[in-house]
Design brief:
single chain, alpha+beta, two-stranded antiparallel ribbon, globular
Length: about 350
Protein backbone atom coordinates (compact mmCIF):
# COMPACT_ATOMS: atom_id res chain seq x y z
CA UNK A 1 0.00 0.00 0.00
CA UNK A 2 1.25 3.50 -0.83
CA UNK A 3 0.11 6.45 1.26
CA UNK A 4 0.16 10.16 0.49
CA UNK A 5 2.68 11.85 2.76
CA UNK A 6 0.41 14.69 3.92
CA UNK A 7 -2.25 12.20 5.02
CA UNK A 8 -0.14 9.30 6.28
CA UNK A 9 -1.63 7.84 9.45
CA UNK A 10 -1.07 4.86 11.70
CA UNK A 11 1.94 2.94 12.79
CA UNK A 12 4.78 2.16 10.38
CA UNK A 13 7.47 -0.42 10.83
CA UNK A 14 10.83 1.37 10.94
CA UNK A 15 14.04 -0.40 10.03
CA UNK A 16 15.92 -1.49 13.11
CA UNK A 17 13.28 -0.36 15.63
CA UNK A 18 9.56 0.24 15.98
CA UNK A 19 8.20 3.74 15.75
CA UNK A 20 4.96 5.39 14.76
CA UNK A 21 4.38 8.23 12.34
CA UNK A 22 1.07 10.06 12.51
CA UNK A 23 -0.40 12.24 9.81
CA UNK A 24 0.56 15.28 11.87
CA UNK A 25 4.15 14.03 12.16
CA UNK A 26 4.49 13.60 8.41
CA UNK A 27 2.79 16.88 7.57
CA UNK A 28 5.12 18.64 9.99
CA UNK A 29 8.11 16.90 8.42
CA UNK A 30 7.17 18.02 4.92
CA UNK A 31 6.63 21.59 6.08
CA UNK A 32 10.01 21.53 7.81
CA UNK A 33 11.63 20.21 4.65
CA UNK A 34 10.02 22.99 2.64
CA UNK A 35 11.50 25.61 4.94
CA UNK A 36 14.95 24.03 4.76
CA UNK A 37 14.76 23.80 0.99
CA UNK A 38 13.80 27.44 0.55
CA UNK A 39 16.53 28.51 2.99
CA UNK A 40 19.02 26.49 0.93
CA UNK A 41 18.11 28.37 -2.24
CA UNK A 42 15.57 25.98 -3.70
CA UNK A 43 12.51 27.72 -5.04
CA UNK A 44 9.24 27.17 -3.20
CA UNK A 45 7.59 26.31 -6.50
CA UNK A 46 10.26 23.67 -7.20
CA UNK A 47 9.62 22.07 -3.81
CA UNK A 48 5.85 22.21 -4.14
CA UNK A 49 5.91 20.76 -7.65
CA UNK A 50 8.19 17.84 -6.88
CA UNK A 51 7.72 17.04 -3.17
CA UNK A 52 4.42 18.31 -1.78
CA UNK A 53 2.35 15.74 -3.67
CA UNK A 54 4.77 12.83 -3.43
CA UNK A 55 3.31 9.44 -2.51
CA UNK A 56 5.27 7.83 0.30
CA UNK A 57 6.58 4.28 0.03
CA UNK A 58 6.83 2.67 3.49
CA UNK A 59 8.25 -0.52 1.94
CA UNK A 60 11.56 1.34 1.68
CA UNK A 61 12.06 1.12 5.43
CA UNK A 62 12.74 -2.60 5.46
CA UNK A 63 15.44 -2.15 2.80
CA UNK A 64 17.65 -0.03 5.05
CA UNK A 65 19.19 -3.16 6.59
CA UNK A 66 19.09 -5.46 3.59
CA UNK A 67 21.97 -4.36 1.35
CA UNK A 68 23.13 -7.54 -0.47
CA UNK A 69 26.83 -6.69 -0.26
CA UNK A 70 26.51 -7.05 3.51
CA UNK A 71 24.04 -9.95 3.75
CA UNK A 72 24.79 -12.24 0.78
CA UNK A 73 27.59 -14.85 1.05
CA UNK A 74 30.51 -13.47 -0.91
CA UNK A 75 30.65 -16.41 -3.30
CA UNK A 76 27.02 -15.83 -4.28
CA UNK A 77 27.60 -12.08 -4.53
CA UNK A 78 30.68 -12.47 -6.74
CA UNK A 79 29.09 -15.16 -8.92
CA UNK A 80 26.20 -12.86 -9.77
CA UNK A 81 28.32 -9.80 -10.49
CA UNK A 82 31.41 -11.26 -12.15
CA UNK A 83 30.07 -13.82 -14.59
CA UNK A 84 31.04 -14.46 -18.20
CA UNK A 85 28.07 -12.45 -19.46
CA UNK A 86 29.20 -9.31 -17.63
CA UNK A 87 32.79 -9.88 -18.74
CA UNK A 88 31.79 -10.23 -22.39
CA UNK A 89 29.50 -7.20 -22.24
CA UNK A 90 32.22 -5.18 -20.53
CA UNK A 91 34.78 -6.01 -23.18
CA UNK A 92 32.27 -4.90 -25.80
CA UNK A 93 31.86 -1.59 -23.93
CA UNK A 94 35.63 -1.15 -23.87
CA UNK A 95 35.66 -1.41 -27.65
CA UNK A 96 32.56 0.71 -28.25
CA UNK A 97 33.69 3.56 -26.01
CA UNK A 98 37.44 3.26 -26.54
CA UNK A 99 37.91 6.88 -27.63
CA UNK A 100 35.93 8.30 -24.71
CA UNK A 101 37.69 6.03 -22.22
CA UNK A 102 41.09 7.05 -23.57
CA UNK A 103 40.21 10.70 -23.03
CA UNK A 104 38.89 9.91 -19.56
CA UNK A 105 42.14 8.16 -18.66
CA UNK A 106 44.17 11.09 -19.97
CA UNK A 107 42.12 13.50 -17.87
CA UNK A 108 41.84 11.53 -14.62
CA UNK A 109 44.47 8.79 -14.68
CA UNK A 110 42.04 5.90 -14.21
CA UNK A 111 42.35 3.01 -16.66
CA UNK A 112 39.41 2.03 -18.89
CA UNK A 113 38.94 -1.44 -17.39
CA UNK A 114 38.40 -0.06 -13.90
CA UNK A 115 35.93 2.59 -15.05
CA UNK A 116 33.97 0.07 -17.10
CA UNK A 117 33.99 -2.42 -14.21
CA UNK A 118 32.31 0.16 -11.98
CA UNK A 119 29.77 0.77 -14.73
CA UNK A 120 29.14 -2.95 -15.08
CA UNK A 121 28.59 -3.58 -11.39
CA UNK A 122 26.53 -0.44 -10.79
CA UNK A 123 24.06 -0.63 -13.69
CA UNK A 124 25.06 -3.57 -15.91
CA UNK A 125 26.39 -1.06 -18.43
CA UNK A 126 23.29 1.10 -18.37
CA UNK A 127 20.72 -1.70 -18.50
CA UNK A 128 19.55 -1.44 -14.90
CA UNK A 129 19.23 2.03 -13.39
CA UNK A 130 16.73 1.05 -10.72
CA UNK A 131 12.98 1.59 -10.76
CA UNK A 132 12.28 3.92 -7.85
CA UNK A 133 11.66 7.65 -8.40
CA UNK A 134 14.32 9.45 -6.37
CA UNK A 135 11.97 12.13 -5.11
CA UNK A 136 9.60 9.50 -3.73
CA UNK A 137 12.36 7.50 -2.07
CA UNK A 138 14.20 10.45 -0.58
CA UNK A 139 11.08 12.21 0.65
CA UNK A 140 9.91 9.00 2.30
CA UNK A 141 13.28 8.34 3.96
CA UNK A 142 13.55 11.98 5.02
CA UNK A 143 10.45 11.58 7.16
CA UNK A 144 10.50 7.93 8.27
CA UNK A 145 12.96 5.44 9.69
CA UNK A 146 16.56 5.95 10.67
CA UNK A 147 19.13 8.21 8.98
CA UNK A 148 16.52 10.87 8.23
CA UNK A 149 19.11 13.65 8.44
CA UNK A 150 21.25 11.98 5.78
CA UNK A 151 18.35 11.48 3.40
CA UNK A 152 17.11 15.04 3.89
CA UNK A 153 20.45 16.27 2.61
CA UNK A 154 20.17 13.98 -0.40
CA UNK A 155 16.63 15.22 -1.09
CA UNK A 156 17.81 18.83 -1.15
CA UNK A 157 20.62 17.91 -3.53
CA UNK A 158 18.13 16.16 -5.80
CA UNK A 159 15.98 19.28 -5.91
CA UNK A 160 19.08 21.30 -6.83
CA UNK A 161 19.73 18.95 -9.75
CA UNK A 162 16.16 19.39 -11.00
CA UNK A 163 16.16 23.15 -10.46
CA UNK A 164 19.49 23.50 -12.27
CA UNK A 165 18.16 21.69 -15.32
CA UNK A 166 20.92 19.09 -15.55
CA UNK A 167 18.54 16.12 -15.28
CA UNK A 168 14.74 16.23 -15.50
CA UNK A 169 12.80 15.00 -12.47
CA UNK A 170 11.18 12.15 -14.41
CA UNK A 171 14.63 10.87 -15.39
CA UNK A 172 15.76 10.64 -11.78
CA UNK A 173 14.89 7.01 -11.24
CA UNK A 174 17.27 4.76 -9.36
CA UNK A 175 17.93 2.72 -6.26
CA UNK A 176 15.81 2.72 -3.12
CA UNK A 177 18.45 4.85 -1.38
CA UNK A 178 18.62 7.52 -4.08
CA UNK A 179 21.55 6.51 -6.30
CA UNK A 180 20.98 7.18 -9.99
CA UNK A 181 22.48 7.12 -13.45
CA UNK A 182 24.88 4.83 -15.28
CA UNK A 183 27.26 4.62 -12.34
CA UNK A 184 24.74 5.23 -9.55
CA UNK A 185 25.84 8.47 -7.91
CA UNK A 186 24.11 9.72 -4.80
CA UNK A 187 22.85 13.30 -5.33
CA UNK A 188 25.41 14.78 -2.91
CA UNK A 189 28.19 12.94 -4.74
CA UNK A 190 26.83 14.32 -7.99
CA UNK A 191 27.15 17.87 -6.67
CA UNK A 192 30.79 17.38 -5.65
CA UNK A 193 32.10 15.07 -8.34
CA UNK A 194 30.01 14.97 -11.54
CA UNK A 195 31.53 16.54 -14.64
CA UNK A 196 30.27 17.68 -18.03
CA UNK A 197 32.56 15.63 -20.27
CA UNK A 198 30.60 15.82 -23.50
CA UNK A 199 30.55 19.63 -23.43
CA UNK A 200 26.80 20.15 -23.70
CA UNK A 201 26.64 22.38 -20.62
CA UNK A 202 24.94 19.78 -18.41
CA UNK A 203 26.29 17.16 -16.03
CA UNK A 204 24.01 14.34 -17.10
CA UNK A 205 24.72 10.91 -15.63
CA UNK A 206 21.51 9.44 -17.06
CA UNK A 207 21.64 10.16 -20.79
CA UNK A 208 25.34 10.93 -21.29
CA UNK A 209 27.73 7.98 -21.10
CA UNK A 210 30.78 10.28 -21.42
CA UNK A 211 29.60 12.34 -18.43
CA UNK A 212 28.98 9.18 -16.39
CA UNK A 213 32.31 7.53 -17.17
CA UNK A 214 34.31 10.70 -16.60
CA UNK A 215 32.48 11.41 -13.36
CA UNK A 216 33.30 7.92 -12.13
CA UNK A 217 36.97 8.38 -12.95
CA UNK A 218 36.91 11.76 -11.22
CA UNK A 219 35.45 10.10 -8.13
CA UNK A 220 38.20 7.48 -8.03
CA UNK A 221 40.90 10.09 -8.61
CA UNK A 222 39.62 12.20 -5.73
CA UNK A 223 39.50 9.08 -3.57
CA UNK A 224 43.23 8.57 -3.97
CA UNK A 225 43.53 6.49 -7.13
CA UNK A 226 47.15 6.05 -8.19
CA UNK A 227 47.57 5.91 -11.94
CA UNK A 228 49.40 2.87 -13.25
CA UNK A 229 49.25 0.98 -9.95
CA UNK A 230 47.35 -2.28 -9.35
CA UNK A 231 44.41 -2.59 -6.97
CA UNK A 232 45.91 -5.78 -5.57
CA UNK A 233 46.46 -9.45 -6.31
CA UNK A 234 45.14 -12.85 -5.37
CA UNK A 235 47.86 -14.36 -3.20
CA UNK A 236 48.96 -17.63 -1.65
CA UNK A 237 49.68 -17.87 2.06
CA UNK A 238 52.30 -20.22 3.48
CA UNK A 239 51.32 -23.03 5.82
CA UNK A 240 50.84 -21.83 9.37
CA UNK A 241 50.50 -18.17 8.40
CA UNK A 242 49.13 -16.03 11.23
CA UNK A 243 45.88 -14.66 9.82
CA UNK A 244 45.40 -12.38 12.82
CA UNK A 245 47.31 -9.73 10.85
CA UNK A 246 44.66 -9.66 8.10
CA UNK A 247 42.15 -6.85 7.59
CA UNK A 248 41.71 -3.96 5.19
CA UNK A 249 42.91 -1.37 7.70
CA UNK A 250 45.85 -3.47 8.93
CA UNK A 251 48.38 -2.07 6.47
CA UNK A 252 52.05 -2.99 6.38
CA UNK A 253 54.84 -2.54 3.83
CA UNK A 254 54.76 -5.03 0.98
CA UNK A 255 58.13 -6.28 2.21
CA UNK A 256 56.47 -7.36 5.47
CA UNK A 257 54.17 -9.70 3.58
CA UNK A 258 56.74 -11.08 1.15
CA UNK A 259 59.16 -11.58 4.03
CA UNK A 260 56.58 -13.86 5.63
CA UNK A 261 56.09 -15.96 2.54
CA UNK A 262 53.07 -14.30 0.94
CA UNK A 263 53.30 -14.62 -2.84
CA UNK A 264 51.18 -13.93 -5.88
CA UNK A 265 49.09 -16.95 -6.69
CA UNK A 266 50.08 -16.73 -10.37
CA UNK A 267 53.78 -16.89 -9.48
CA UNK A 268 54.53 -13.42 -10.88
CA UNK A 269 56.52 -10.78 -9.02
CA UNK A 270 54.73 -7.99 -7.16
CA UNK A 271 54.77 -4.79 -9.22
CA UNK A 272 54.69 -2.14 -6.45
CA UNK A 273 57.82 -1.14 -4.55
CA UNK A 274 58.71 -3.06 -1.39
CA UNK A 275 57.71 -0.13 0.81
CA UNK A 276 54.20 0.17 -0.63
CA UNK A 277 51.51 -0.22 2.02
CA UNK A 278 49.39 -3.34 1.57
CA UNK A 279 46.68 -5.16 3.50
CA UNK A 280 45.66 -8.81 3.51
CA UNK A 281 42.00 -9.62 2.86
CA UNK A 282 40.48 -12.99 3.70
CA UNK A 283 36.82 -12.41 2.80
CA UNK A 284 35.84 -16.03 3.48
CA UNK A 285 38.42 -16.83 6.13
CA UNK A 286 41.63 -18.82 5.99
CA UNK A 287 40.24 -21.52 3.71
CA UNK A 288 39.05 -19.18 0.93
CA UNK A 289 40.78 -16.90 -1.59
CA UNK A 290 43.29 -14.41 -0.17
CA UNK A 291 44.11 -10.97 -1.55
CA UNK A 292 46.84 -8.44 -0.94
CA UNK A 293 45.38 -4.99 -1.67
CA UNK A 294 46.86 -1.53 -2.15
CA UNK A 295 45.70 2.08 -2.18
CA UNK A 296 43.63 1.69 -5.33
CA UNK A 297 41.47 -0.91 -3.61
CA UNK A 298 40.61 1.73 -1.02
CA UNK A 299 39.60 4.12 -3.80
CA UNK A 300 37.17 1.50 -5.14
CA UNK A 301 35.97 0.70 -1.60
CA UNK A 302 35.09 4.36 -1.04
CA UNK A 303 32.51 4.13 -3.85
CA UNK A 304 30.40 1.81 -1.69
CA UNK A 305 31.91 0.84 1.65
CA UNK A 306 31.72 -2.94 1.40
CA UNK A 307 34.70 -5.21 0.79
CA UNK A 308 32.67 -7.66 -1.30
CA UNK A 309 31.56 -4.79 -3.55
CA UNK A 310 35.12 -3.53 -4.02
CA UNK A 311 36.39 -7.05 -4.71
CA UNK A 312 33.69 -7.56 -7.35
CA UNK A 313 34.75 -4.40 -9.19
CA UNK A 314 38.45 -5.16 -8.80
CA UNK A 315 38.08 -8.73 -10.03
CA UNK A 316 35.82 -7.68 -12.91
CA UNK A 317 38.41 -5.12 -13.98
CA UNK A 318 41.03 -7.89 -14.10
CA UNK A 319 38.73 -10.08 -16.17
CA UNK A 320 38.14 -7.19 -18.58
CA UNK A 321 41.92 -6.97 -19.01
CA UNK A 322 41.98 -10.59 -20.09
CA UNK A 323 42.90 -12.29 -16.84
CA UNK A 324 41.20 -15.47 -15.70
CA UNK A 325 38.99 -16.20 -12.73
CA UNK A 326 40.09 -16.67 -9.16
CA UNK A 327 42.45 -19.59 -8.61
CA UNK A 328 41.50 -20.51 -5.05
CA UNK A 329 38.04 -21.90 -4.41
CA UNK A 330 35.46 -20.50 -2.03
CA UNK A 331 34.89 -22.69 1.04
CA UNK A 332 31.49 -23.97 -0.04
CA UNK A 333 30.02 -26.80 -2.07
CA UNK A 334 27.62 -24.29 -3.64
CA UNK A 335 29.79 -21.48 -5.06
CA UNK A 336 26.88 -19.50 -6.48
CA UNK A 337 25.14 -19.27 -9.82
CA UNK A 338 25.86 -16.93 -12.68
CA UNK A 339 22.97 -14.92 -14.07
CA UNK A 340 22.72 -17.27 -17.05
CA UNK A 341 22.53 -20.26 -14.70
CA UNK A 342 19.86 -18.54 -12.63
CA UNK A 343 17.77 -17.85 -15.73
CA UNK A 344 18.14 -21.48 -16.82
CA UNK A 345 17.02 -22.69 -13.40
CA UNK A 346 14.01 -20.35 -13.47
CA UNK A 347 13.05 -21.65 -16.91
CA UNK A 348 13.22 -25.25 -15.69
CA UNK A 349 11.12 -24.47 -12.63
CA UNK A 350 8.50 -22.68 -14.70
CA UNK A 351 8.38 -25.57 -17.16
CA UNK A 352 7.59 -27.89 -14.26
CA UNK A 353 4.77 -25.68 -13.06
CA UNK A 354 6.48 -24.05 -10.09
CA UNK A 355 5.55 -20.51 -9.06
CA UNK A 356 8.85 -18.63 -8.76
CA UNK A 357 7.29 -15.28 -7.87
Amino acid sequence: MRISIPTLAGALLCAGFCATATAADISSCVQSLRGKAVAAGIGASTFDTHVAGVVADPSLLELLNRQPEFTTPIWDYMAGLVDQERVDDGRAMLRTHADTLARVEAAYGVDPATVVAVWGVESDYGKVFGKRPLLTSLTTLSCMGRRQSFFRGELLETLRIVQGGDVAADKLVGSWAGAFGHTQFMPSTYRRIAVDFDGDGRRDLVDSIPDALASTANYLKRSGWRSGQPWGYEVRLPEGFDTAVSGRTSRRPLSYWTGRGVSRIDGQAFAPAAGTAAALLLPAGRSGPAFLVFKNFDAIYSYNAAESYALAIAHLSDRLRGQGGLVASWPTEDPGLSRAERRELQTLLLARGHDIG
